[in-house]
Structure formats: C-alpha cells, structure tokens
Amino acid sequence: MEFKHKSVLLEETVNGLNIKPDGIYVDGTLGGGGHAEEVCKQLNDKGSFIGIDQDAAAIEAASVRLAGFGERVTIIRSNYCDMKSRLRERGIDKVDGIILDLGVSSYQLDTAERGFSYRVDAPLDMRMDRRQEKTARDIVNTYSEMELFRIIRDYGEDKFAKNIAKHIVMEREKAPIETTGQLCEIIRHAIPMKFQKNTGHPAKRTFQAIRIELNRELEVLRDTLDEMIELLNDNGRICIITFHSLEDRIVKGIFKKNENPCTCPSHFPVCVCGNVSKGKVITKKPILPGEQELEENSRSKSAKLRIFERHVNTKV
Questions:
Q1: Average pLDDT over every residue of 285-309
Q2: What's the burial of 297, exposed, middle or buried (CB within 10 Å: 0-12/13-18/19+)?
C-alpha cells in the first residue's frame, strides 16, 4: 500500500520554524515527508535536513519523496527519543529547528494489517516500529485488570474504563483476544447502548490508550522534550503538532517551564533560585487548522500546533 498521509498544519508549521536557508533542521516524526519536503525547498546547498522515523514504510516513502534534495537530506530509522545521540553520531551538536507531528499516521490507520484501526478486523498489532516484539495483543491478553483500567482511564480518558477492563479480562479467560474486531465487540458490550449514541465509535478511546501504552508515546515525549529544546541554537525553534489533550498538556507545560523556570516564591522581589529561561513560547494559544483544512482533511480536527523559540543565556 502506498504511504499516503496528508500533513496537518503544513504551512503553519513550516512558517513557524522561521527557516534559515543554511540551517540544520530535524523532523523527529518524518512520516511520508510532507513537512520535510517543504522545509527542504527553503534550504540552500549549505543547509541540511535530518528525518527520523521508526516506521520502515515511512522511511521508504520519505526516501523517495526527498531523493531530489540529494546530500542535503539524511534519513534515520529510529525513535525521536534518540535524536541527540543520532545527531552526535553524525557530528551535529546543535540544530536550528525541530518538528514533531505526533500520533498515528493516515497510512498506519488505513493499512489494515497494522492493527491500528477499530474500523476493520485485523490482528491486534499497533506497533509503530515493527522491529519491536511486544504488540497490542500482548497488552490485551497479559495486563492485569487494574493495569488495563489504568491505561484506558489515563490514556483513553474513557469513563467506562473500569467496565471495559473487566470485560476484556472476562473474555480472554475463555480464549485469547486476537483481533481488533474481537476487541471492538467486547468494548461495545462494556458500554451502555445509550452512551454509544452521538459519541463516535465506542472503541476509539480504548484503541488510543492501548496504542499510547504500547509505543510509550507520552513517556517518550515527556522525557525528551527538554533535551530537544537544549539541542536548539539561539533563536532556533521547535514546532509540535499534537492530536489529543494528553500530548498537548505535556507540550504546553514543558514549554511554559522552559520559558519561566523560576521556583522563587511569588512575593520575592527578585529571582534568587538561579534558574535561567531557555527561551519563549511563540504560541500563547495553540494554532488550529483553518476551515479549508478541516473540510479537506477530517483527521486534522483535533490538531494543535505549539511553537517554542530557544534563547541562549536569557534571564527570567
């Protein structure tokens, strides 16, 4: 299947980078290379672009799409949590801009055998990196009822998390749960019918929760965002597109902390804690898709773009 993914907030993200033609730019979630292509168009022969993705299909598609930019482009199969070490292996200590387009791609959703979608019956997989052994099937069939409840409640924000976890455990005692279709039916029976009307597919939140847990999506974002800000040159920018409240909350909080890390009590006349601001938040409110994009790409409706600009040796 051809790797198709319509890049969300494309113009807003590329403009948000404030690109220098001779700069170094990194896309930590390369995908099919939509954002990457637009960045590369603005680079001259001294500029360089590094694309990182853990999905082999994305690497293949982006390699074809970006082939015309020649040696300006380097593509690496890895998780963006390893960005710093992967860059240093190539002699790069600082960059001028970073993009993260979080979540699952249209290609991954639409490729049935990847097991991301609750709309088609397929093996329970959901791995963004298929080199990984653990799959969604392992989570569904081996996590305790309390662990399932926790991830569905915390990552899916589903008010029926307790009942869904209970039903999963009851059903797997009869036989292992192997497919997305089986899991969907279990979830349907766990949620009262009156609550299934006008709330979208009943399995949506549980599938999201399992995917996030399996791929450590929030953990990776939370643990590496400070490090990525440190990778930026003075006036360098990081642009992050999120698709649900949990991701956005992490990005908003870490950006705010890097802008104002002062821990002094509010009544202190001057800062004495010694914490230095790393820069400023460019987007006091997130940038949202416009009406035209919403009409053309329904999957953009929950997207939010936040931008942070690095300032070196900035006082709070």
A1: 94
A2: middle
Backbone angles phi, psi at 120, to 5 degrees: -135, 150
Q: Is the pTM of this model over 0.90?
A: yes
* Residue 248 known to bind ligand: no
Q: Residue 43 pLDDT > 70, yes or no?
A: yes
Say how far apart CA 58 and CA 104 lie, in whole Å. 12
76-111 pLDDT, tens per residue? Answer: 999 999 999 999 999 999 999 999 999 888 888 889
- CA–CA dist 94, 48 (Å, integer): 12
Measured CA angle at 279 (ends 234, 233), to 5 deg: 20
Is residue 35 annotated as involved in ligand binding? Answer: yes
User: CA-to-CA distance for 24 and 92, rounded, in angstroms?
Assistant: 9
**pLDDT exceeds 70 at position 284:** yes
Query: Which position has the token pair 């899916």?
Result: 156
Please give the DSSP secondary-structure letter assigned to residue 41: T
The answer on whether 33 is annotated among ligand-binding residues is yes
Let me know: does 109 contact 250? Beta carbons within 8 Å: no
- Reported as half-sphere exposure (CB side, CA atoms, 13 A), residue 286 has a value of 22
Answer yes or no: is pLDDT of 218 > 50. yes
Q: Which residues contact 21 (CB under 8 A, 6 or more apart)?
A: 42, 43, 44, 46, 47
**b/e code 60-86 from CB counts within 10 Å (16+ = b):** ebbeebbeebeebbbbbbebbbbbbeb
Token reading at 78: 């890895």
d(CA 245, CA 174): 36
Residues in the chain: 316
Q: How far is CA 222 from CA 75, 226, 227, 267, in A?
A: 24, 8, 10, 30
Q: Is 53 annotated as a binding residue?
A: yes
Residue 34 assigned to a binding site: yes
Domains of the chain in start order, with CATH, are 10-106+217-314 (3.40.50.150), 117-215 (1.10.150.170)
